[in-house]
Amino acid sequence: MLLEVKDLNVYYGAIHALQGVSFHVDEGEIVTLIGANGAGKSTTLLTVSGLLRARSGNMRFRDHDLALAQAQDIVRLGIVQVPEGRKIFAPLTVKENLEMGAYTRSNKAEVQASLDRVFRSLPRLKERLKQLGGTLSGGEQQMLAIGRALMAKPTLLLMDEPSMGLSPVLVEEVFNIIQDINSQGTSILLVEQNAQMALSVANRAYVLETGRVTLEGDAHEVLHNPQVIEAYLGGH
Prior knowledge:
six-stranded mixed β-sheet, 38% helix
């Protein structure tokens, strides 16, 4: 098991945001968390990343206890997040943004190998290397956010709403990129409002409702679950 989360309880002040959330990600999997806005999906990712602290519960990544680990140490272990809303460095060039993703790494040859991998998966970034991040289109900024995360050489990539605000054509492109990254050996924990697309690429899925896991299972089975169809797939 790559990542195991057990009985996670997270609060925002008096608000009990995650109420005993448990899930796991195995090596090589795409696992998706789906649910309505406010269900706790992004909170889960931020807690795994070390950007939020759980009040109780256990998180293990391979042999490492993540409960008290600092965010930068979690990145060094191999867990890297593509944040909601991209959050690229707008005043920096594409090249500088990518270099920021490799800040924990010192082996120049390995960093160059990661850069080459990014260009294979995201060739448009190579064409934009000297362009300022803030001048890219929305789709290109999403690709840059993904590329920056790949520069940290993740074992587990956390992706928070990668299709948000993109046109249908770009949504399809982003999901093709997600599958390509996974096929190269990177496990992915995916939070996504577009439940149809998320379930179509994932191995397994968890449904969150108001801070609790209410359904889990094979993604194909969850995709055809009548309650999920009614709640998240437009009733079709």
